[in-house]
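Justification of resources, computational component.

The compute hours requested in this renewal are based largely on the per-chain cost of generating structure records like the one below. Each record pairs the submitted sequence with a full structure-token output. That output is archived, and it is also reused by downstream analysis tasks.
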Amino acid sequence: MQVLFTLLAFLLTTGILVLFHELGHFWMARLFHVRILRFSIGFGPFLWSRRLGSDQTEYGIAAIPLGGYVKMLGETPEDLLEPADRFRSFTGLHPAQKFLVAAAGPLANLVLAVVAYAVTAMAGIPGIAPVVGQVEPRGVAAGAGLQPGDRILAVDGSTVSDWQDLRMRLLAAAVGGTVVILEVRTPGGTRQRLQMGFGHLPPDSISSGFISRVVGLGPYLPPVIGSVVPHSPAARLGLRPGDRILAVNGQLVPSWQFFARAVEANPMKEIRVRWQDMRGQVQHGSVQPGLYLFHGQPIGRMGVTLAPLPASLIVLHRRPPIQALGYGFGETVRISRLTLEMLWQMVQGVASTSNISGPISIAQMAGESLELGVGPYFSFLALISVSLAILNLLPVPILDGGHLVFHGIEWITGRPVSPAVVQKAQMIGIVLLVVLLLFAFYNDLSRLLKP
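The structure output for this chain reads:
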């Protein structure tokens, strides 16, 4: 059932993205009175189709849900046209009009992102408060002077709403290689301004887990037990749901991450644990964590899970419609800039190419976000819509960006690019897209098969 749900979420997501993209081309072409012959969601043979309107446009859903197309009258110079049809053909348009028709698809995806982010802002997404719980000694955060318990209020003067917001702002700074100023409130209530620089990152460092590995930051998660596996080391020790871990081997435990690492570092070795039970009484005892292999390395396990976060660490921001639209526009601009910068960093070798995701990863994220609710799903939809728009604007033949180049040349020179040149360029574009798709599949399978 989970696989079926993921597949349906993927089909829903790709259907929405492709529909908006192709509607952009469709509406702009109709604005210039071009006759539309076919409007397809997907490629290959039609599973369903209908002819509608005075032009008898064929609308259909095809078998391969990885794109779509709008076929216009006279779209290629080889199309044979009756003299009476030329004024309604694509080839009869001014190069500037052709340029707008090609650009309308990616623009529609950016509009979709604005709307989706606005819906997210109105619905609100529960997030973790930007309180620091983990600081790696050798990370960028430690060098900036951050300490566990610090609450990050703003980055470069912009208020930080939750942990995800903080992650995105730090990631954007890392991609840009800039220095940011953090406004921080310490556990004692003192306000500080700290400087965090990203000018000298090692190659391929911007990848999955960048914030925890390189920046060395983790959110504050209280060391409170949520559940205990029967017959596990934790059960033998006497831990119960609701117990709060106070110390391990004499060291105070400030967060769940600290407790987890202490356990992981001591497989089959006796550790001393002190905790406070639900009645407020302090207990202590010794136990040996079980041994498990993770990426071939032995680590300790206690058989416990983290308790749900208290309300004080959960933030939920909802915006009224007008403010939500402003937020949607701002987020779309920010994510678009971040995507372009990330692509450039990949070319330079700073950002890892493992960030490229394919259909399998997108399907998984679509299913997971849809399970979480309206806000998370629309946030995911907006992110993918921006990515689709940026991808299509790249100057690669067969993509919209390639068509923009051809129409731009025609606009400047006054004559269309030779059909033979267009055909050869599109063959190169197809090869590039196939290579990119295979690479994305490789990344997907690597994530899927990783322990």
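The first strand starts at residue 36 and ends at 52. The chain has twelve helices and 18 strands.
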